[in-house]
What we know:
Blueprint: H1 8-24, E1 29-32, H2 35-42, E2 54-58, E3 66-70, H3 74-80, E4 88-91, H4 103-113, E5 120-123, H5 132-141, E6 146-149, H6 153-158, H7 163-186, H8 193-206, E7 221-224, E8 245-254, E9 257-267, H9 272-291, H10 298-311, E10 321-328, E11 331-338, E12 352-360, E13 365-374, E14 379-381, E15 390-392
Parallel strand pairs: 1-5, 3-4, 5-6, 9-15
Antiparallel strand pairs: 1-2, 2-3, 7-8, 8-9, 10-11, 10-12, 12-13, 13-14
Amino acid sequence: xxxxxxxxxxxxxxxxxxxxxxxxxxxxxxxxxxxxxxxxxxxxxxxxxxxxxxxxxxxxxxxxxxxxxxxxxxxxxxxxxxxxxxxxxxxxxxxxxxxxxxxxxxxxxxxxxxxxxxxxxxxxxxxxxxxxxxxxxxxxxxxxxxxxxxxxxxxxxxxxxxxxxxxxxxxxxxxxxxxxxxxxxxxxxxxxxxxxxxxxxxxxxxxxxxxxxxxxxxxxxxxxxxxxxxxxxxxxxxxxxxxxxxxxxxxxxxxxxxxxxxxxxxxxxxxxxxxxxxxxxxxxxxxxxxxxxxxxxxxxxxxxxxxxxxxxxxxxxxxxxxxxxxxxxxxxxxxxxxxxxxxxxxxxxxxxxxxxxxxxxxxxxxxxxxxxxxxxxxxxxxxxxxxxxxxxx
Length: 393
């Protein structure tokens, strides 16, 4: 068996908090479709979520969670999850990608046979890998159940990190720093974007001799030249130019815990507009860090940033940060706290936020970010790397 990332007592504590919330919502069974939530509850870790996969959590304190997925991947459950073998359940191969049957047909039958077919069931409806067809087949197979949207129930529990989780995030931060340092070393005029990405990914995986890196839930992003105005396009075999502003949005991941780190580098002399904007962004980050502490509303952090950039004649429509932690593709955000106007989330010790201050202009862009732990008295940046634009001539 692969070593569990956490002590079994921590998994039990997580279940206790989740079941308490289930009780408040009068839920008798929770169907967990978010892959990160499945890992958070069970420890299961495998690239098997391209076929339907779920975790069931009954309200009874004596009952373990049940992992349900493809039969060939049940072996992975026995190696990585903490539950008893009889709570690792695989649906038959004959249900994989068939036109006349669906894995949720089988799972619905299994739930009914377990005696849970008439329960009030909370279900995650916004999970990336839970399709409309899967939901239709599951509900059709459980006509006596009452289904309630329980989206983000587990995510909000996850938003407060334990000391063991924070330790993984610290390690992930070291990998993120190694990735940005590698980018600074390799990127130069004439170098292809794809070659830079290859070196960066090597640093993300093997950037520490003491622990392994994982793949990132979002791929590395390098935005150079006119591409820097678009925050989410991918690399190519394009070569870096002699006078380009380059935005880097990178991360490190340890045991699926993600620490993001965005920085900006300049090849050649920076235009004055780039320098002025960078100064405003750096001042804004100081305002963000000064604002983050327990009891502050998420929208209050964004307001501190907005007051700074407005003084510089700048405006940013998108949010400036979000809760981050355990993650699987295609996204490393937790979908809970967002640093933006109107978000009334109250920051608590143990929240971890990725504040990313991206300014994407016409033909160029700047990014600076920090992964930030809310402490008992304020905040701490888990990433520790110079924020100024890295000039390379």
